[in-house]
Amino acid sequence: MPQKYVSIDGVATLLHHTGATTLPEDPPATDQGEVLLCLHGTGRHGGDFVSLLDALADRHSPVAFDWPGHGRSGGLDSLGSVDRLRDFTRALVEKLGLRSLVLLGHSLGAAVALDYARHFPSEVRGLVLCSAGAGFDLSDEALEAARLVTEGKRRRDFDPGAFAKDADPKVMRRAFMAGMKTDPRASYGDLLACADWQPEGLGEIRAPALVLHGDAEREPVVASANRLLDTLPNGRKVVVGRAGEMILYEQPGAVADEVASFLESLT
Protein backbone atom coordinates (compact mmCIF):
# COMPACT_ATOMS: atom_id res chain seq x y z
CA MET A 1 0.00 0.00 0.00
CA PRO A 2 1.52 3.36 -1.03
CA GLN A 3 2.45 5.72 1.77
CA LYS A 4 3.76 9.26 1.88
CA TYR A 5 4.22 12.15 4.30
CA VAL A 6 2.58 15.55 4.07
CA SER A 7 3.01 18.43 6.50
CA ILE A 8 -0.24 19.39 8.27
CA ASP A 9 -0.01 22.26 10.76
CA GLY A 10 3.73 21.57 10.97
CA VAL A 11 3.24 17.87 11.75
CA ALA A 12 4.74 15.21 9.47
CA THR A 13 1.59 13.22 8.76
CA LEU A 14 1.67 9.75 7.23
CA LEU A 15 -0.88 9.04 4.50
CA HIS A 16 -1.99 5.60 3.38
CA HIS A 17 -3.46 5.75 -0.12
CA THR A 18 -4.05 3.81 -3.31
CA GLY A 19 -2.92 4.28 -6.88
CA ALA A 20 0.35 5.73 -8.07
CA THR A 21 2.71 7.40 -5.67
CA THR A 22 3.35 11.13 -6.08
CA LEU A 23 6.13 13.58 -5.29
CA PRO A 24 6.62 14.77 -1.70
CA GLU A 25 3.91 17.20 -0.57
CA ASP A 26 1.85 16.48 -3.73
CA PRO A 27 -1.59 15.05 -2.92
CA PRO A 28 -2.26 11.49 -4.07
CA ALA A 29 -4.69 11.05 -6.95
CA THR A 30 -8.33 10.96 -5.76
CA ASP A 31 -10.17 11.16 -9.08
CA GLN A 32 -11.64 7.65 -9.10
CA GLY A 33 -15.14 7.00 -7.77
CA GLU A 34 -15.89 8.30 -4.30
CA VAL A 35 -13.24 9.87 -2.09
CA LEU A 36 -13.25 7.98 1.21
CA LEU A 37 -11.26 9.55 4.06
CA CYS A 38 -10.70 7.10 6.93
CA LEU A 39 -10.31 8.32 10.52
CA HIS A 40 -8.85 5.79 12.93
CA GLY A 41 -9.86 5.05 16.48
CA THR A 42 -8.50 5.54 19.98
CA GLY A 43 -4.81 4.67 20.22
CA ARG A 44 -4.76 3.27 16.69
CA HIS A 45 -3.41 4.50 13.32
CA GLY A 46 -4.28 4.59 9.63
CA GLY A 47 -2.75 1.17 9.06
CA ASP A 48 -5.96 -0.32 10.46
CA PHE A 49 -7.60 0.47 7.12
CA VAL A 50 -5.05 -1.15 4.79
CA SER A 51 -7.29 -4.11 3.93
CA LEU A 52 -10.20 -1.79 3.26
CA LEU A 53 -8.11 0.50 1.05
CA ASP A 54 -6.89 -2.48 -0.93
CA ALA A 55 -10.42 -3.82 -1.42
CA LEU A 56 -11.78 -0.46 -2.66
CA ALA A 57 -8.80 0.62 -4.77
CA ASP A 58 -10.22 -0.58 -8.10
CA ARG A 59 -13.31 1.63 -8.01
CA HIS A 60 -12.79 4.39 -5.46
CA SER A 61 -10.18 6.70 -3.92
CA PRO A 62 -9.72 5.74 -0.27
CA VAL A 63 -7.20 7.56 1.93
CA ALA A 64 -6.25 7.01 5.56
CA PHE A 65 -3.76 8.81 7.80
CA ASP A 66 -2.17 8.66 11.24
CA TRP A 67 -3.23 11.33 13.73
CA PRO A 68 -0.36 13.31 15.32
CA GLY A 69 1.37 11.13 17.89
CA HIS A 70 -0.08 7.94 16.38
CA GLY A 71 1.57 5.30 14.23
CA ARG A 72 4.34 6.96 12.25
CA SER A 73 3.12 10.56 12.25
CA GLY A 74 5.07 13.20 14.14
CA GLY A 75 4.56 14.06 17.79
CA LEU A 76 4.02 12.03 20.92
CA ASP A 77 0.72 13.29 22.29
CA SER A 78 -2.86 13.16 21.07
CA LEU A 79 -4.47 16.42 20.01
CA GLY A 80 -6.71 15.71 22.99
CA SER A 81 -10.17 16.78 21.83
CA VAL A 82 -12.68 16.07 19.08
CA ASP A 83 -12.63 19.76 18.14
CA ARG A 84 -8.87 19.77 17.55
CA LEU A 85 -9.00 16.47 15.67
CA ARG A 86 -11.77 17.89 13.48
CA ASP A 87 -9.74 21.00 12.74
CA PHE A 88 -6.68 18.89 11.90
CA THR A 89 -8.82 16.81 9.54
CA ARG A 90 -10.08 20.01 7.93
CA ALA A 91 -6.49 21.17 7.37
CA LEU A 92 -5.63 17.81 5.80
CA VAL A 93 -8.70 17.97 3.53
CA GLU A 94 -7.60 21.40 2.32
CA LYS A 95 -4.01 20.23 1.85
CA LEU A 96 -5.17 17.32 -0.31
CA GLY A 97 -7.68 19.43 -2.20
CA LEU A 98 -10.66 17.24 -1.34
CA ARG A 99 -13.95 18.93 -2.15
CA SER A 100 -16.56 16.18 -1.79
CA LEU A 101 -15.87 13.18 0.38
CA VAL A 102 -17.23 10.32 2.43
CA LEU A 103 -15.89 10.09 5.97
CA LEU A 104 -15.35 6.69 7.55
CA GLY A 105 -14.61 6.81 11.26
CA HIS A 106 -13.84 4.04 13.72
CA SER A 107 -14.42 4.66 17.45
CA LEU A 108 -13.01 8.15 18.18
CA GLY A 109 -12.70 8.67 14.42
CA ALA A 110 -16.47 8.29 14.13
CA ALA A 111 -16.98 11.12 16.62
CA VAL A 112 -14.65 13.31 14.59
CA ALA A 113 -16.50 12.37 11.39
CA LEU A 114 -19.84 13.34 12.94
CA ASP A 115 -18.46 16.63 14.21
CA TYR A 116 -16.92 17.36 10.82
CA ALA A 117 -20.21 16.66 9.03
CA ARG A 118 -22.04 19.01 11.39
CA HIS A 119 -19.59 21.87 10.86
CA PHE A 120 -18.93 21.37 7.13
CA PRO A 121 -22.11 19.76 5.78
CA SER A 122 -21.59 20.82 2.16
CA GLU A 123 -18.34 18.84 1.96
CA VAL A 124 -19.62 15.49 3.23
CA ARG A 125 -21.49 13.15 0.88
CA GLY A 126 -21.84 10.37 3.41
CA LEU A 127 -20.68 8.85 6.69
CA VAL A 128 -19.62 5.35 7.70
CA LEU A 129 -19.47 5.06 11.49
CA CYS A 130 -17.87 1.92 12.95
CA SER A 131 -17.99 0.76 16.58
CA ALA A 132 -19.28 4.09 17.86
CA GLY A 133 -22.42 6.03 18.63
CA ALA A 134 -23.76 9.15 20.29
CA GLY A 135 -21.12 9.35 23.01
CA PHE A 136 -18.65 7.14 24.86
CA ASP A 137 -19.07 5.21 28.10
CA LEU A 138 -15.73 5.49 29.90
CA SER A 139 -15.22 4.82 33.58
CA ASP A 140 -12.86 6.73 35.84
CA GLU A 141 -11.08 3.42 36.45
CA ALA A 142 -10.36 2.97 32.74
CA LEU A 143 -8.99 6.49 32.43
CA GLU A 144 -6.80 6.05 35.51
CA ALA A 145 -5.44 2.75 34.20
CA ALA A 146 -4.50 4.43 30.92
CA ARG A 147 -2.81 7.29 32.79
CA LEU A 148 -0.73 4.83 34.81
CA VAL A 149 0.47 3.22 31.59
CA THR A 150 1.81 6.61 30.45
CA GLU A 151 3.89 6.77 33.66
CA GLY A 152 5.26 3.26 33.27
CA LYS A 153 3.38 2.11 36.38
CA ARG A 154 1.15 -0.32 34.51
CA ARG A 155 1.66 -2.41 31.42
CA ARG A 156 -0.49 -2.17 28.31
CA ASP A 157 -2.87 -5.07 28.72
CA PHE A 158 -4.39 -7.12 25.93
CA ASP A 159 -8.17 -6.64 25.84
CA PRO A 160 -9.97 -9.79 24.63
CA GLY A 161 -13.31 -7.97 24.98
CA ALA A 162 -12.47 -6.03 21.82
CA PHE A 163 -12.90 -9.23 19.78
CA ALA A 164 -15.51 -11.90 19.18
CA LYS A 165 -15.12 -14.94 21.43
CA ASP A 166 -14.10 -17.18 18.52
CA ALA A 167 -11.70 -14.68 16.93
CA ASP A 168 -8.58 -16.10 15.29
CA PRO A 169 -5.66 -15.74 17.74
CA LYS A 170 -3.41 -14.66 14.86
CA VAL A 171 -5.80 -11.84 14.01
CA MET A 172 -5.99 -10.81 17.65
CA ARG A 173 -2.20 -10.71 17.91
CA ARG A 174 -1.87 -8.69 14.69
CA ALA A 175 -4.41 -6.11 15.87
CA PHE A 176 -2.78 -5.83 19.28
CA MET A 177 0.72 -5.44 17.87
CA ALA A 178 -0.48 -2.79 15.42
CA GLY A 179 -1.82 -0.77 18.35
CA MET A 180 1.60 -0.91 20.01
CA LYS A 181 2.88 1.46 17.33
CA THR A 182 1.11 4.34 19.09
CA ASP A 183 2.63 5.84 22.24
CA PRO A 184 0.53 5.37 25.43
CA ARG A 185 0.45 9.14 25.91
CA ALA A 186 -1.43 9.53 22.66
CA SER A 187 -3.81 6.71 23.59
CA TYR A 188 -4.53 8.37 26.93
CA GLY A 189 -5.17 11.71 25.24
CA ASP A 190 -7.61 9.99 22.90
CA LEU A 191 -9.52 8.56 25.84
CA LEU A 192 -9.77 12.02 27.38
CA ALA A 193 -11.10 13.31 24.06
CA CYS A 194 -13.75 10.58 24.07
CA ALA A 195 -14.71 11.32 27.66
CA ASP A 196 -15.04 15.06 27.00
CA TRP A 197 -16.96 14.81 23.72
CA GLN A 198 -20.38 16.44 23.86
CA PRO A 199 -22.34 15.17 20.81
CA GLU A 200 -24.46 18.19 19.97
CA GLY A 201 -26.50 18.93 16.87
CA LEU A 202 -26.30 15.43 15.41
CA GLY A 203 -29.91 15.73 14.28
CA GLU A 204 -28.80 18.47 11.90
CA ILE A 205 -26.66 16.05 9.86
CA ARG A 206 -28.46 15.25 6.62
CA ALA A 207 -25.76 13.15 4.94
CA PRO A 208 -26.59 9.45 4.50
CA ALA A 209 -24.95 7.46 7.28
CA LEU A 210 -24.09 3.79 7.67
CA VAL A 211 -23.73 2.77 11.33
CA LEU A 212 -21.68 -0.42 11.43
CA HIS A 213 -20.70 -2.67 14.32
CA GLY A 214 -20.05 -6.32 15.07
CA ASP A 215 -22.50 -8.71 16.73
CA ALA A 216 -19.96 -9.17 19.55
CA GLU A 217 -19.60 -5.44 20.20
CA ARG A 218 -19.83 -4.34 23.83
CA GLU A 219 -23.36 -3.59 24.97
CA PRO A 220 -22.71 0.10 25.85
CA VAL A 221 -21.44 0.68 22.30
CA VAL A 222 -24.49 -1.04 20.81
CA ALA A 223 -26.79 1.08 22.96
CA SER A 224 -24.91 4.23 21.94
CA ALA A 225 -25.13 3.25 18.26
CA ASN A 226 -28.88 2.82 18.61
CA ARG A 227 -29.19 6.25 20.19
CA LEU A 228 -27.24 7.66 17.27
CA LEU A 229 -29.61 6.01 14.80
CA ASP A 230 -32.56 7.57 16.59
CA THR A 231 -30.89 10.96 16.08
CA LEU A 232 -29.57 10.84 12.50
CA PRO A 233 -32.29 11.61 9.93
CA ASN A 234 -30.70 9.43 7.23
CA GLY A 235 -28.94 6.69 9.17
CA ARG A 236 -29.20 2.92 8.87
CA LYS A 237 -27.47 0.15 10.78
CA VAL A 238 -25.67 -3.00 9.66
CA VAL A 239 -24.46 -5.62 12.12
CA VAL A 240 -21.55 -7.80 10.99
CA GLY A 241 -21.30 -11.31 12.35
CA ARG A 242 -18.38 -12.66 14.40
CA ALA A 243 -16.79 -9.29 15.16
CA GLY A 244 -16.29 -6.93 18.06
CA GLU A 245 -14.59 -3.54 18.30
CA MET A 246 -11.69 -4.80 16.15
CA ILE A 247 -14.08 -5.35 13.25
CA LEU A 248 -11.58 -3.96 10.73
CA TYR A 249 -9.26 -6.86 11.54
CA GLU A 250 -11.80 -9.58 12.30
CA GLN A 251 -14.06 -9.18 9.26
CA PRO A 252 -12.26 -7.01 6.69
CA GLY A 253 -14.06 -8.59 3.75
CA ALA A 254 -17.53 -8.04 5.19
CA VAL A 255 -16.68 -4.45 6.12
CA ALA A 256 -15.34 -3.79 2.61
CA ASP A 257 -18.51 -5.22 1.04
CA GLU A 258 -20.77 -3.04 3.20
CA VAL A 259 -18.71 0.08 2.55
CA ALA A 260 -18.59 -0.60 -1.20
CA SER A 261 -22.36 -1.05 -1.30
CA PHE A 262 -22.82 2.20 0.62
CA LEU A 263 -20.53 4.10 -1.76
CA GLU A 264 -22.37 2.72 -4.78
CA SER A 265 -25.66 3.90 -3.29
CA LEU A 266 -24.30 7.45 -3.18
CA THR A 267 -23.25 7.29 -6.81
Mean of residue pLDDT values = 96
Number of helices: 9
Gross morphology? globular
* Structural class by sheet pairing and helices: alpha/beta
Low-confidence stretches: none
Write down how many β-strands occur, each being a DSSP E stretch of 2 or more residues.
8
Count of discrete domains: 1
Give me the Rg, rounded. Answer: 17 Å
Identify the CATH architecture: 3-Layer(aba) Sandwich
**CATH class group:** Alpha Beta
SSE series: EEEHEHEHEHHHEHEHH
Ends distance: 25 Å
CATH topology: Rossmann fold
**Spatial sequence of strands, sheet with the most strands:** 1-2-4-3-5-6-7-8
Helix content: 25-40%
CATH fourth-tier homologous superfamily: Alpha/Beta hydrolase fold, catalytic domain
Proportion of strand residues = 15-25%
User: Mind describing the biggest β-sheet?
Assistant: 8 strands, mixed
